[in-house]
Structure formats: C-alpha cells, structure tokens
Amino acid sequence: MPLREQAINLTVEDEDSPLYGADADADDIVVRAGRLHLERNPARGESYRQTSLPRSRRRAC
C-alpha cells in the first residue's frame, strides 16, 4: 500500500485526528506540503508528523 494511502487510513481511523471519519476512498483528502487536509475545508487536517505520533502526544502539538 502506498505511503499516501497509509497516512490517509491512519488519520481517518484515529478518533483523535481532525480527519476522523472522513471517507478514505474519496478524492476529498489532499496530501500536500507535508500535510493532509480536506479539500473543501483546509483547516480540517494535520501534518504527517502529527499523524505518526502516538495518541498521547498528539494533543501536545
């Protein structure tokens, strides 16, 4: 599975992610400049760094 798909799946399945519950199969998630966000709402997203952090450390970022 390509890295892009892995990152999207991590974010949409993580209850602490701003992208939680988004449709991972839709073209609605944009991956650009080290960040994932919804195309229609760029404020709803997170960086690759936040995606890879354990849940306990996410809130500190």
Which secondary structure elements does this structure contain, and how are they paired or packed?
Blueprint: H1 3-13, E1 29-32, E2 35-38, E3 41-47, H2 48-52, H3 55-58
Antiparallel strand pairs: 1-2, 2-3
Sheet/helix structural class? alpha+beta
Mean pLDDT: 81
- Give the topology string: H per helix, E per strand: HEEEHH
Q: How far from one another are the termini?
A: 28 Å
Low-confidence stretches: none
Identify the notable features of this structure and list them briefly:
single chain, 61 residues, alpha+beta, 3-stranded antiparallel sheet, 3 helices, 3 strands, globular
Question: How would you characterize the overall build of this protein?
Answer:
The chain is α+β, with helices and mostly antiparallel strands and 61 residues long. Helices cover 33% and strands 25% of the residues. The chain is built from three helices and three strands, in the order αβββαα. The protein has a three-stranded antiparallel beta sheet. Strand 2 (35-38) and strand 3 (41-47) form a beta hairpin. It starts with a helix and ends with a helix. The mean pLDDT is 81.
